Here is the input.
Amino acid sequence: MNTSSQSMFITGGTGYMGSRLIPRLLDRGHQVRALVRPQSQDKLPAGCTPILGNALEAKSYSEEVGPATTFVQLVGVPHPSPAKAAEFRSIDLVAGREAVAAAVTAGVDHFVYVSVAQPAPMMKAYLSVRAECETMIRESGLNATILRPWYVLGPGHRWPNVLIPAYWLMEQLPSTREGARRLGLVTMEHMLQALTGAIENPCRGVRILGVPEIRRCTFDTPPGTVTA
Here is the structure.
């Protein structure tokens, strides 16, 4: 794995996943700059450079993205549920659109986005917004890695553990195997390893990491290869 120091710009750095990813990247010698509101900059770990701005307005931070070569977009409504359909469109969609615009303006080499497993039988509004953001990324011409977890197990997010036996059974049956694998559970550690791996192994074109790839944290094709 390529562990040479990289410069990156992260949105959502004080959130559930970002707050765990940034210390790991710093420990690996990367230079990290994170977009935050003024009242949240103290939440960033030592060594991370705060960039003050609004994730819903690219013009508030786009000039500060450089010299980053990697843009990691992690902004999203916490604890997604069907009741938050309006928030998905006003926050997740807008933040995604603005992040893509800022990344294009800055000319970053690689864009990393956490989407969601699809298709899926529920959370239609959430899936729709994430799919729209994926389309924006593809149409932008950015080199990008898109991660598609379904549910991330971690602190405060452990109730699906009770479903593990059911998942195991569905993976044994040919009729349900594909869906069970695509909509399988991943841990926070899986996500952190996959995000770190994606950052340190940038691609050309658009690369999709579904649940099986996130669990394995595998990059079977060399950097520079379109995988999806």
Summary: The longest strand covers residues 31-36. The beta strands are 7-11, 31-36, 49-52, 70-73, 110-114, 144-147, 151-153, 185-187, 206-209.
